Amino acid sequence: MTVDEDAGLTSRPAEDASGGTLARTLRALRGPEKLPGPDSQPEPKDAAEWLRDHGVTVAALTMIAIELVWMAVLLSRSYFLQDDYRFFDRAVTQGFNWSYLMWVEAGHLLPFGTALAWVLARIALYNWPLACLSILALLAATCLALLRTLRTLFGNRPAILIPLTLFVFSPLSLAAVSWWVVAVELLPLELAIFMAVNAHVRYLRGGRFRSALAAAGWLLFGLAAADKAAVIPLLLFALTSAFFAEGRWAIAAVRAGRRYWRAWLLYGALLAGYYVIFVIQLRGSNVQPSAPGTASSASLASTLVGTTLVPGLLGGPWRWLYFGYVTANPPAALQQLSWAVAVLVSEPAAVAWSSRAGSGARRRPASHRQPIVPSRERRPPRPDAGCGRSGSWGACRACAGSGLPPAPRRGSARGRSHARPRARASW
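The structure assignment produced for this chain is given below.
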């Protein structure tokens, strides 16, 4: 700026004045600029860009659709079996009341299956396409629940497609899904497990008790589908103590029990009520439970692990046996080969995990361990207790999580590089 001492006015240099005049002239020729308003729409994305943004979701939904088509073809070659007729016969002869729903079948309380059988019998008795439609609907809901849970736990990343693929295309589910009474017991149970985990993790992260209520609702749904759902609270507690509480597992379990006691009280109340109803109804059942013997327990464990689980994890069972219903019957050579592969894979992994856990425990104290999935209830350390490596709070947390010894800040003693943790009760 230049100052005219005689006039006492300010004026721009000549080149600035000419430049400003030219700019105003160009703006006048272009017309008024259109500012983005509230009704303005963003530019549409092309197909490739949209697919990059939603590729994981598209791939997951495609796999689920393929499984539904695959199961539909399988179900078209099946029909009602054994217990299916008993369920539908009771649905025709009895009304929809408490006595009907709380019927104990061979030691199992299955009110969801009996209610669904009553509805299907009223619509069309022994209509296999209608029964297949109910199975496919439950299967689709279960797969979508698993996808939602994986996204809640790990985010919408491509790695979640690995467990989803194993679940969707595992041959182990073929025998169960093709039998109606087993499908309406197993699929709702899996649906309840996935959704209960999803709601419980949201409760742990957000601290909203309505998420715990949602988890309790899914627990109640699982108990209505199968009595095996009684283990869902144990799964939730194991997940909480392993990933949402710091310290060794025994101490983390105590802290998880104290920190989230309202959720455990809610789940426990539901289990207690279910146990009372089950015991009362079991007294009127024609089949009473008895303690299993050693031979039967060993046979069950051998069949569950050696014949079904281990070969199934490697793509088995490769052969099925049918005598009224379908069971896994892998060839002896492939079954033994799957055992050998399981030993070769699990032994080095167990040694590496134990050595890493031991070295990590020696490097860092329990007070500096962070939960894998943080929750809102954990308060972060003070920003002034930062790490001397970069003088930032984030670097301090990174050092605490990696087990590296903290570096002293400039101008401070070595022992004061981190804030002293508060005294905690230890066992």
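Interim note for the steering committee: The chain has 17 helices and six strands. The two ends are 76 Å apart (CA to CA).
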